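Pair request: fold both.
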Amino acid sequence: MTQTQFDLNELLEAIKAGGDIDVLRRGAEMLYQALIEAELSERIGAERFERSDSRLTQRNGHRERTLSTKAGDLELKIPKLREGSFFPSLLERRRRIDRALFAVVMEA
């Protein structure tokens, strides 16, 4: 999901109109996606579609990832790289079950 000025203006208008939980979910989704893209750009040394000599590798599509939050499930797109791997530091790897359930299983 690429954020455009139109998307952000639409979200702002929905918030001003007294948006519901869906507006919060969309806002959180946009924020997470922007942070993921910024982290990747820093890691590879170039923004999307930017050509530079300091670039380490290239982007190679995305994979879908659902993140469960109190605002609802966020559909995020995790960028893939042509060489090497990338996983955002703000997400947890291989987290498939809730922490409380995981703690109960570990104690058993």
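--- second member of the pair ---
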Amino acid sequence: MIHKEGYMTILIVVLALIIINVLYYHFFGNYKWPGYILQAGSIFLLVLVLQFFRNPNRNVVENEYVVLSPADGEVVAIEEVEEPEYFKDKRIQVSIFMSVWNVHANRWPISGKVTYFKHHQGKYLLAAHPKSSTENEHTSIVVADKNGVEILFRQIAGFVARRIVAPINEGDTAKQGQQFGFIKFGSRVDMFFPLGTKIRVKNGDKVYGGLNIIADMPR
């Protein structure tokens, strides 16, 4: 299954590859080997784009006692930081890096109500850069569960990623495991938990959106 965010990009890539190949064979058709290389490169690029926008079905088991991963990727940071935008205090930050090989649809980590949402314009530093969490283009999303416990997480654009899709409004209902957005071409998601939260992953772990447990739900 292909994510709807990929339809236009895939169409543009297909049309561009057709035009490039037609022009090559019209003007340089006598040069066979470069043509074969062009064909192979065109197929590779198309496969790369198709796999990037893949959107596999997942059987998510809802669990109000845990926080599920909002993204596919690798856990690259677990650290105590100052969260200056919403909580304005110290939090445990868990960062998940999404490479171009990962599924890039994002999923709600908990069920509840969206109490805060803001889109920030910014830079396009490498997503692994420590300052990317606050200086890159990003969205900040806070969801409160039925007990009023809030979790903040951010979609962060990277050096390659240039578009964050998050059709969210404050007051929306979040359902754990369901998709809520998409980040195109490499990115990162940060999550912020109260101090003392039991984190269930470690640096280097591979996680999958809606399937892996990131932390116990704070109480």
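Observation on the second member. Residues 4-52 form one domain.
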